[in-house]
Amino acid sequence: MVRNLCVMKYPHQVKTLAEYKAAYDKSVKEPEAFWAKVAENFSWKKKWDKVLDWNFSEPKIEWFKGAKLNITENCLDRHLPTDANTPAIIWESNNPKEASITYTYQQLYDKVCQFANVLKNNGVKKGDRVCIYMGMIPELAIATLACARIGAIHSVIFGGFSAQAISDRLQDANAEFIVTCDGAFRGAKDIPLKSVIDEALKTCVFVKKVIVYKRTNTSVSMKADRDIWWYDEIKKVEAQGNAACPAEEMDAEDILFILYTSGSTGKPKGVVHTCAGYMVWTNYTFVNVFQYKPGQIHFCTADIGWITGHSYIVYGPLSAGATSLMFEGVPTYPDAGRFWEIVDKFKVNILYTAPTAIRSLMSFGLDLVNNKKLSSLEVLGSVGEPINEEAWHWYHTNIGKEKCPVVDTWWQTETGGILISNLANVTPHKPSFATLPLPGVQPCLVDEQGKVIEGNNVSGNLCIKFPWPGIIRTTYNDHERCRQTYFSTYKNLYFTGDGCLRDEEGNYRITGRVDDVLNVSGHRIGTAELENAINSYTGVIESAIVGYPHDIKGQGIYAYVIYDGDHDHAETRKEIAASVTKMIGAIAKPDKVQFVSGLPKTRSGKIMRRILRKIAEGDTGNLGDTSTLLDPSLVDEIKKGAL
Ligand code: WT7
């Protein structure tokens, strides 16, 4: 029965190893025919003139060229004839005593249309940028979809970012509209979102409207003519009696959203995804990687402020008519059994989380696991960073009871959706390996000189040689930066920034970033951005940031700082950390700050990060060649002061 339903609903879902191989083969040999067939499963206002037009040198990438659509019709309207009463979003509060909320597809459709009309009433038009800065409440998904409904470009900013970080993003996108909350509940904390926005807006006078949803009842200041309450605006729409909101006709390559992410240089850049390709890619990867079956409950624990939430809480599941569970809180509140309690409460079938969460929960022991059933689980997923074998086995054994495949999904903000992963119960899992590329994905490994490394049992830098529908199109307002960052390191290849090995069977294992980018608790943080934040603290002359292995976070942040004059080290350390929290957000707070009198540099002035990394890792025995250093004696001093 379920199988038949799947065949009807998801004809593009591969179900056996042979089907995977055939699909992969076809996607490489006849990509346009392959994706044209997949695209038949969506609702289009007008079909495409050409499936794919591309070159990686500019880059120019156009999927489903000439097609017209609205992604929300695919996520909402088209499910109504069959699934009006199917739960679309189930929401679980931070507070386990607060009632959960379910929105069926009909109810979600109504809410999205209603809020889309609020946006319109307030002057938001197609192409305008709307910044969304909210906690994990259903209204965050509603606001996101409402933007897409009217063709406004959403830029969701994670609720943990600081006022300065928001201001940078608002200015980059010239976003004139903001949707936020008075505050957000996260664990025992109450985060004052609106007051962070107020602070950010001191440097963003171009912002015209701030729509505020009341969640925490924290008192907030409301600026006349600019700040308005969500609830009041909904009342106005109700009074107008215009319940529906027609979906704006969008071109396949119109921008759907901007999402900021860090790189090895400069400020975060706005990764741009467009309507048709992103829709097809998130849907295709969702139904294939997790092997979603109608009726299942899918629980992705990410925040919608990150790409994982965009793709696997909102667009992937909803475009498939699935039931997506959204959780407001954190894994350790009120205790470290909360995820497992939620799994039992809603009979979750698919659990998709991050290695850092698994490692953190592992450290609490099994008492809070073994008093739960967890019998509804069928598929487990991992995302955000390499999963170490210990965490993989703990997850597979204690949570999956050895009966659930673990999909280790490798991808990036820039890729829109999963690129390399096993497919649950279709292709085999292998601890700490993302395993095989999805149909449409053509990975290759290259050496330092950019030569492609053929064969198996090899390692190199991971590149992709052909576009897939969900690939980044540009970085907002700065196409050259997109070219430079992703398409210039190796000619005609998309460079991921990750190191990778391919085993004897062709399975891929991602080994981590090869650029100056850290992955802290699954969050991507640029070292240049961190150094800028630290250097802004009065008295800091220079700094260098490196990552070091951290049991829970994956990587910790180690800062070497040259600080001028007398100071109380403990106090200054705290203040430097606080300045990072102020400039970026608490997720980027350094774990260790070591004061040094100088940084190891080559004669040409380049910081030798390799040496700093070794010292931070506590591996000072073999620092390699230090003879090219301007001042080799510095190394001993730094070694002695290591934390
Ligand atoms: C970087 C992308 C993908 C959504 C969350 C993070 C690392 C991601 C895996 C994995 C090993 C992984 C990579 C990648 N990464 N998933 N399964 N195995 N590494 O998105 O912030 O854009 O970061 O996360 O280093 O480049 P992001």
Care to describe what's here?
The chain is an alpha/beta fold. It folds into 3 domains: 301 residues, Rossmann fold (3-Layer(aba) Sandwich); 147 residues, Rossmann fold (3-Layer(aba) Sandwich), CATH 3.40.50.980; 120 residues, ANL, C-terminal domain (GMP Synthetase, Chain A, domain 3), CATH 3.30.300. The protein is built from 21 helices and 31 strands. The longest helix has 17 residues. The chain is globular. The relative contact order is 0.10. 5'-O-[(S)-butoxy(hydroxy)phosphoryl]adenosine binds next to helix 12, strand 19, strand 20, strand 25 and strand 26.
Oligomeric state: single chain
CATH class term of the largest domain: Alpha Beta
Radius of gyration (CA) equals 24 Å
CATH architectural type of the largest domain: 3-Layer(aba) Sandwich
Uncertain runs with pLDDT below 50, 5 residues or more?
Answer: none
Number of helices: 21
Number of strands: 31
Hetero ligands: 5'-O-[(S)-butoxy(hydroxy)phosphoryl]adenosine
The major β-sheet equals: 8 strands, mixed
What is the CATH H-level superfamily of the largest domain?
ANL, N-terminal domain
* Separation of the first and last Cα atoms: 60 Å
CATH fold-level assignment of the largest domain: Rossmann fold
How many independent structural domains? 3
Which geometry do the CA atoms define? globular
What is the typical, i.e. mean, pLDDT?
Answer: 96
Strand order of the largest sheet: 12-11-8-6-7-14-15-24
Secondary-structure-based class equals: alpha/beta
Q: Beta fraction of the residues? A: 15-25%
Share of helix among residues?
25-40%
